[in-house]
Amino acid sequence: MKVYSNMMTLYAVTDSAWVGKQTLVEQVKDALEGGITFLQLREKSLNQEEFLQEALEMKQLATAYKVPFVINDDIEIAKQMDADGVHVGQDDMSPREVRKILGADKIVGVSVHNIEEAVLAQEAGADYLGLGAIFPTTTKKDAKPINQDFIKEICDSVTIPVVGIGGINESNMNLLYGSHLDGVALVSAIFGAKDIKQETKKLLEMAKRI
Fold first, then answer.
1. With CB atoms counted within 10 Å of each terminal CB, which end of the chain scores lower, N or C?
2. Exposed, middle or buried, 174 (CB in 10 Å: 0-12/13-18/19+)?
């Protein structure tokens, strides 16, 4: 699947820590109805069987809304349930190796933090990059925020789409206007909202201005 920049506009990353009255799948449905353009399932607390079941339900939903669906880190689960692709970090398998397992038609996203990592990931066959942490974040406590001018340099160093991740929300997204990012990846800004559907609609309109 070819990845275009407009797929990155509002990229949702799940986090079961925000599950309350709704299940994670119900939250994801609301986010899809609100207009997310890309979905990543990130799940640290479930066993393989539970993770697989959740992934299958989410893929069905994402397919119905015509939104690409990738699995964070777990290449085996991604292959088993035929996800659209996988997102890997710097300490995980290289994009080249991932593609050997998943196949040429699958999406491979890579987390990067600087120009060198960005260029190497593109050369190794990444379809898009997740650049972070843009702002301080509770999800990754050891992450250091990236200088705004540096974001432009990294985006301009590659030809594949780049999505910013890390502490981005409604109150600071406007600081990214003109940053050359193709979109934003959000966790708590979406899944921590009281009304996920309405908040997602609002965030989408903001993300379109980046």
1. N
2. exposed
